Amino acid sequence: SCYLTTVPDDLEGIYSAIKDNALLSKFAGGLGNDWTRVRGMGAHIKGTNGRSQGVVPFMKVANDTAVAVNQCFAPETTVFTADGPKPIAEVKVGDLVLGQRGRYREVTEHFVYDQKSAPMVQVAVKHAVNDLKVTAGHPFWAIQGIPIEQSIERTLSQIEHGRFQPQWVEAAKLEHGDYVAQVIPSEVAPVEGLTEADARLYGILLGDGHLTRGSEFGVSGNPSRDGGYLQFVRDCLTERGIHYWENGRGDTYLQIKWALGKGLARCATTGQYVGLDEAYLPFTYADLCDDAGNKRIARRFSHLPHNQTLALIQGLLETDGGISRGKEINFTSTSAPLAEGLRYQLLRLGIPCAGQYRERANAREGTRSDGSVIAFTGTTRAFDLRIPAAPDIAGLVGIPALTKHNWFRLGNCVYTRVKSVSPLAPVPVVHDLKVEGDETYMTAAALVHNGGKRKGAVCAYLETWHVDIEEFLDLRKNTGDDRRRTHDMNTANWVPDLFMKRVAENQHWTLFSPDETPDLHDLTGQAFEAAYTAYEARTERGEMKVHKRIKAVDLWRKMLAMLFETGHPWLADARHAVRDRPPLDRLQGPVQHPLHQPARGRRAQFQLVYRNYPTYQ
């Protein structure tokens, strides 16, 4: 269905209609323009005493405007999915993404746009790792107007009394100090048989653990500094009856290793040794690393009960975490999926997390505690997280909890400040998602609307008697002058009954410019036929300036050829619903025809397209 606006036959009206569609398309798709009233190629322009170039150049402008207002993100933008954080470019139809209600919804379409001039901005959010590169019109769920220095308590009180409320705000209209929302995931999915100790051990393995050749686990650490979690690993293995061994180097390095499987056992019947393939622990290589070898929190462990989530976080912090100045918690990882995965787990607890990406050159040598020398080369790429010492987290690492926050929770979202919004050179390729049910998705930095836009969200409509109809049929072709092509806009051809009669009877069809036939577009049925044949008679008398006579069947065949080749223009019968009774009222509205108000107690009838193509040869 499309909601249509009629494009008037004047320059100001044409561009006003294009602008209106662009503004509406920020929040909804399914929009269209009825171009039938715009004069055709060769028609006289009184104001300039020139000749019109027809409707096609204006349709090209409408197409490019529709692309320019797409609400999209740069391809590297991280989106929270059920499989973990992913760049939006890698999100596929069928994936599940986190929506505004804290639940996962299916991606039904993934749109990719090539662009050159769409305005974009870079939005820096306080509790995020990377800035967002986004088209200027993309809506964010945000609260504006709260003074920078205002306390959280006063802010919450004013929100409660209605002074401030969250709303959708375009990216370019966000300002320093505005609050944007981050959705708290609500899903909890326990893993059968998993204990808090298992969850903590899983976190330790994600931090300083490894799995060699798919058969040998190992955990490393500094005995003098990491004795707590190293002893915890020993205790876990001993409790499960798992044999382990240790390797060390000097006083500062220790590695605990154990086999993945149960190894060999003697059969009580035969006395032979047999292998046991069951794993000692409820973890496999796939639970630790993705296909690219990056450590990450596996999907099945991403929504544990909160007590187990805290245990998992504890394991990560006691391996790759640290404390600064006795009160600041930090975490460092070379794995982007793991860093964003930890941020996601914190968000599940209602705690936003800031961070940064850094690179460090490693052209140096180091001396181990045993006196051996090791050389470092290359570049270390790492993600540093700054984790707020919320009470639950502070208790894990033994530091005082924060008494003041620079964020707040409202409903199922936490709100964090915007640090900056700056203009950005357009990114050549941008992406957007269409989500089932919940028209939102959660990036790693903020909740956004899915934009309401999709490829072809704007559609151009033209009646079959318009003198530009032949060029209109070619708009979606991949060959020809690209200045007269609309690759991103849908097209639809309104076909009157009289044309189909002419096709069936192998008669001619006459094309007109609407500035000379102003009433045709509003007429239906017998009234249309009478007016149309009258204009044909005037053509025979030489009274019409712009017209063209062609065989109806040739035009019909071209319609079908273009439909089969490009899928466009769609063929729509705009008149069938009302041919037997006069309209009571008319509005330019949904679907591919004028909509007429039915009599009380009767349903409106719609005929969208011809369904009897085989009837016409």
Topology:
Layout: E1 3-6, H1 11-24, E2 31-34, E3 41-45, E4 50-53, H2 56-68, E5 78-81, E6 84-87, E7 96-98, E8 104-114, E9 120-125, E10 132-135, E11 139-143, H3 152-160, E12 167-170, E13 179-183, H4 196-208, E14 209-212, E15 216-221, H5 227-239, E16 244-249, E17 253-259, E18 261-266, E19 273-279, H6 285-288, H7 306-320, E20 321-324, E21 328-333, H8 336-348, E22 354-361, E23 364-367, E24 373-376, E25 379-387, H9 391-397, E26 408-410, E27 413-424, E28 429-435, E29 440-442, E30 447-449, E31 458-463, H10 469-473, E32 490-494, H11 497-504, E33 508-512, H12 525-540, E34 547-551, H13 552-566, E35 570-572, E36 586-587, E37 595-596
Parallel strand pairs: 1-2, 2-31, 31-32, 32-35
Antiparallel strand pairs: 3-4, 5-6, 7-8, 8-28, 9-10, 9-27, 11-12, 11-13, 13-27, 14-15, 15-17, 16-17, 18-19, 20-21, 21-25, 22-25, 23-24, 26-27, 29-30, 33-34, 36-37
Helix pairs in contact: 1-2, 4-5, 4-7, 7-8, 7-9
Give your account of this protein's structure.
This protein is an alpha+beta fold. It has 3 domains: 222 residues, Anaerobic Ribonucleotide-triphosphate Reductase Large Chain (Alpha-Beta Barrel), CATH 3.20.70; 146 residues, Hedgehog/Intein (Hint) domain (Endonuclease - Pi-scei, Chain A, domain 1); 210 residues, Endonuclease I-creI (Roll), CATH 3.10.28.10. The strands form 12 sheets. Strands 9, 10, 11, 12, 13, 26 and 27 form a 7-stranded antiparallel beta sheet that branches. The chain has a 5-stranded parallel beta sheet with strand order 1-2-31-32-35. β5 and β6 form a beta hairpin. The longest helix is centred in the last third of the chain and has 16 residues. The radius of gyration is 33 Å and the shape is elongated.
